[in-house]
Amino acid sequence: MAEVRFLDGPLRGQIREIPELSDGLPRTVHAPARVRFVEYQPKRSFYADGPRWVAAVTPRCGDPVVAVVPFMGEVLDLLPAAAVEQIDRGGRAALERMTLTADSGVV
User: Is there a contact between 40 and 11 (Cβ–Cβ < 8 Å)?
Assistant: First the structure.
Protein backbone atom coordinates (compact mmCIF):
# COMPACT_ATOMS: atom_id res chain seq x y z
CA MET A 1 0.00 0.00 0.00
CA ALA A 2 1.17 3.53 -0.79
CA GLU A 3 0.01 6.76 0.82
CA VAL A 4 -1.30 9.18 -1.84
CA ARG A 5 -2.37 12.85 -1.55
CA PHE A 6 -5.19 13.82 -3.96
CA LEU A 7 -4.65 17.26 -5.51
CA ASP A 8 -7.91 17.92 -7.36
CA GLY A 9 -11.26 16.39 -8.30
CA PRO A 10 -13.77 14.89 -5.86
CA LEU A 11 -11.06 13.51 -3.53
CA ARG A 12 -8.97 16.74 -3.36
CA GLY A 13 -7.29 17.37 -0.05
CA GLN A 14 -7.58 13.75 1.09
CA ILE A 15 -4.75 11.31 1.82
CA ARG A 16 -5.55 7.62 1.30
CA GLU A 17 -3.78 4.26 1.18
CA ILE A 18 -3.78 2.87 -2.39
CA PRO A 19 -2.60 -0.60 -3.53
CA GLU A 20 0.76 -0.53 -5.37
CA LEU A 21 1.61 -2.16 -8.70
CA SER A 22 4.64 -4.46 -8.94
CA ASP A 23 6.89 -1.48 -9.86
CA GLY A 24 5.91 0.40 -6.69
CA LEU A 25 3.71 2.95 -8.47
CA PRO A 26 0.24 3.36 -6.92
CA ARG A 27 -2.62 2.05 -9.04
CA THR A 28 -4.83 4.42 -11.02
CA VAL A 29 -7.77 5.41 -8.83
CA HIS A 30 -11.38 5.74 -10.02
CA ALA A 31 -13.54 7.97 -7.87
CA PRO A 32 -17.30 8.58 -8.20
CA ALA A 33 -18.20 12.13 -9.21
CA ARG A 34 -21.91 12.99 -9.23
CA VAL A 35 -22.91 11.36 -12.55
CA ARG A 36 -19.67 9.71 -13.72
CA PHE A 37 -16.34 8.41 -12.52
CA VAL A 38 -13.09 10.36 -12.78
CA GLU A 39 -9.67 8.77 -13.19
CA TYR A 40 -6.75 9.88 -11.03
CA GLN A 41 -3.21 9.43 -12.37
CA PRO A 42 -0.55 8.89 -9.69
CA LYS A 43 2.87 10.58 -9.87
CA ARG A 44 5.78 11.32 -7.56
CA SER A 45 5.17 14.17 -5.15
CA PHE A 46 7.25 17.34 -5.41
CA TYR A 47 6.14 18.41 -1.93
CA ALA A 48 8.78 18.36 0.80
CA ASP A 49 6.34 16.94 3.38
CA GLY A 50 3.54 14.41 3.27
CA PRO A 51 3.15 11.27 1.16
CA ARG A 52 5.65 10.20 -1.49
CA TRP A 53 2.87 10.08 -4.10
CA VAL A 54 0.18 12.47 -5.33
CA ALA A 55 -2.70 11.81 -7.72
CA ALA A 56 -4.55 14.23 -9.96
CA VAL A 57 -7.33 14.21 -12.53
CA THR A 58 -5.83 17.10 -14.51
CA PRO A 59 -2.60 16.10 -16.32
CA ARG A 60 -0.38 19.02 -15.19
CA CYS A 61 -1.80 19.46 -11.69
CA GLY A 62 0.95 19.20 -9.07
CA ASP A 63 3.82 19.67 -11.53
CA PRO A 64 6.50 22.19 -10.56
CA VAL A 65 6.27 25.63 -12.14
CA VAL A 66 9.31 27.52 -13.38
CA ALA A 67 8.94 31.27 -13.70
CA VAL A 68 11.33 33.71 -15.32
CA VAL A 69 10.87 37.33 -14.34
CA PRO A 70 12.77 39.74 -16.61
CA PHE A 71 13.73 43.17 -15.31
CA MET A 72 15.78 46.11 -16.54
CA GLY A 73 19.47 46.32 -15.66
CA GLU A 74 18.91 49.71 -14.03
CA VAL A 75 16.99 47.94 -11.29
CA LEU A 76 20.24 46.36 -10.05
CA ASP A 77 21.56 49.84 -9.19
CA LEU A 78 18.58 50.38 -6.89
CA LEU A 79 18.92 47.08 -5.00
CA PRO A 80 21.20 46.47 -2.03
CA ALA A 81 24.41 44.56 -2.85
CA ALA A 82 23.21 41.52 -0.84
CA ALA A 83 20.07 41.26 -2.97
CA VAL A 84 22.08 41.47 -6.21
CA GLU A 85 24.42 38.75 -4.89
CA GLN A 86 21.43 36.51 -4.03
CA ILE A 87 19.90 37.01 -7.50
CA ASP A 88 23.25 36.18 -9.10
CA ARG A 89 23.74 33.02 -7.00
CA GLY A 90 20.19 31.85 -7.72
CA GLY A 91 20.55 32.43 -11.45
CA ARG A 92 23.89 30.63 -11.63
CA ALA A 93 22.52 27.67 -9.63
CA ALA A 94 19.47 27.41 -11.93
CA LEU A 95 21.69 27.56 -15.01
CA GLU A 96 23.91 24.80 -13.59
CA ARG A 97 20.87 22.59 -12.89
CA MET A 98 19.61 23.14 -16.44
CA THR A 99 23.05 22.29 -17.87
CA LEU A 100 23.31 19.10 -15.80
CA THR A 101 19.81 18.06 -16.89
CA ALA A 102 20.58 18.72 -20.56
CA ASP A 103 23.90 16.85 -20.32
CA SER A 104 22.17 13.79 -18.89
CA GLY A 105 19.71 13.71 -21.80
CA VAL A 106 16.69 14.58 -19.66
CA VAL A 107 15.06 17.79 -20.85
Answer: yes
